[in-house]
Write a structure and sequence with these properties.
By secondary structure, this protein is α/β, with parallel strands linked by helices. It is built from eleven helices and seven strands.
Length: about 325
Amino acid sequence: MLTPYQLPLFVRYFDGIDLAVSRRLLRPVAPSETTLTQEFCALMDAGTQRREASLSFDAEALQTALARPGDMVDVQISIETHQHGPRLEAYVSQSDFGLILEYQNTVLPALNWKAAYLMQAKRLFPQAAGGYGLASAFTSISAAQRQRMHDIEAILGRGALRYWLYMPPTHGYNPTSAAAIRALHTRNLSGNIFDYALGLALRDALTDTGAIEAGLWTTGLDAGDTAFAIHEAAFRTAHPFTWFMLEHFSNVRSSIRLDGALNSDEWGGAGMERVASIAAGDRQAAQALIDELCEKARDPEFDPATMTVLPANSVTIKLRSGPPEGIDLPIVTRDRY
């Protein structure tokens, strides 16, 4: 759980990473999906932030600000590159990554939870005339690959896979499209009740910035393949990176209700841990998934290129609330009358 004091700090931190990555799509020659994922993973690493001074509000500044109220809140973000070995190398996708989120409350351990995803990265391409507009598309999404992702989801469970979409920030679209995108966001948010800590943080962010500028988005597997389709579904079935993170960490036991979201309440320990193991690069878990997929691969229509399903990298974000060693709370007894 995050407090009203902590939420704006995380908004500033994650928004800074979003902008640093998404504005790279505005270069004359935009980076590939693989390069964008490498940039994203690098920017999530505190050491890289410090060496390159890439963020004005970096992980060190976040930790310092979180420490002020004395809540003993600690954030650990780790990046790993996996060496799957020669038997699995053909199945590894350099552009995709595993995402593992974990909340630990050392005072109230019943609130602990864990979530894990296999993120399939896709990049928005400019229109033929140049520049980004509503018709810009994720041209690397193919029907065969989408079917393979559904096959994996059938094995691992609904919500284990999500699209991770690289798009320009809203101001990077042509003016007409940018205005339309802002109108779509306004419509979709107008029905929200800005209540509780997270809703109030979203309201405050909109008040401060005037609009959602996010370029990093995540959706379920049935998302559309154009910029319009994603922004038309904004805050419904498509979620900006910042708010996807905060919808997890601001809710008790990750009881979010995102489209296709994976959380500990719905999945249970065994399913969650299997996805987390694959996301973290565990070779045995990866081999077991490939073995199951190979059974489906006997179909003569099968395209081997769609078997690149293992993430080359993982991003793990752990949020701890309370003293590291924990605390034993006294037992409250109530007299009965």
